[in-house]
Amino acid sequence: MRSWVIALVAAGILASTGATAGEADVVSAEATRSPDGTWRFTVTVRHADTGWDHYADAWEVLAPDGTLLGRRVLLHPHENEQPFTRSLSGVEIPEAVDRVTIRARDSVHEYGGATVEVVLPQ
């Protein structure tokens, strides 16, 4: 019986901290090259935002070697808008890079959800 009570208490703690919302997942991403040579990324993220304590708070564009090329900070929870799409313009990508990985972050787990690889159109 004690293990049952401990399990209930642990479940309550997880629920109260928002840990049940899971990790932020990138659902889709698109890249377009601007006339000035920089890139615009349009990214769709899904996360079970529960409010300010646990929400998707950023997504990033990474080179194949892990170099951070761009970051879109998300300034508020999207509890009633799931999945949601946001864009980031002006991302400079070296000519040698032909693909990038998009990953999302949440305020509790940080990184770890589904990512999307985008092959950059030539």
Q: How would you sum up this structure, described in words?
A:
The protein is 13% helix and 41% strand. Mean pLDDT is 83; it is low at 1-19. It has a single domain (2-119), classed as Sandwich (Immunoglobulin-like). It contains one helix and seven strands; from the N terminus they run αβββββββ. The N and C termini lie far apart (63 Å). The chain has one helix at 2-17, and strands at residues 25-33, 39-46, 56-62, 68-73, 84-91, 99-106, 116-119. A hairpin with a 5-residue loop joins strand 1 (25-33) and strand 2 (39-46). The chain is mainly beta. The protein is elongated.
Radius of gyration: 17 Å
CATH class reads Mainly Beta
Largest sheet: 4 strands, antiparallel
How much strand? 35-45%
Q: How far apart lie the N and C ends?
A: 63 Å
Oligomer: single chain
Strand order across the biggest sheet? 4-3-6-7
**Parts with pLDDT < 50 across at least 5 consecutive residues:** 1-19
Q: Helix tally?
A: 1
What percent of residues adopt helix (DSSP H or I)?
Answer: 10-25%
> CATH architecture, please?
Sandwich
The third-level CATH topology is: Immunoglobulin-like
Order of secondary-structure elements: HEEEEEEE
> Which class do the helix and strand fractions yield?
mainly beta
Write the CATH homologous superfamily: Immunoglobulins
Return the domain count.
1
